[in-house]
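ok so I'm stuck.
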Amino acid sequence: METRIFFNPGDSIANIHDYNEAVRKGQIFKRERRNNDLVIAKGPDDEEYAIFYAKDAAKEPGAGQKPYQIKNKL
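replied:
not stuck anymore, here's the structure
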């Protein structure tokens, strides 16, 4: 599932270098909060994974937003 989407980096819940750790933290966060869907996305610099609320995604770039590659949805 490779989808490019735009997020404001300041809206991320967490930034993690290891994909498996990002999935684990996202699952814990979702279980504790039980509110909105989350996405794990690879950052524009390909160095780390970020966890975002899916509702914060934009199809087109806006002010302060950067492209991310969606890797997983929780």
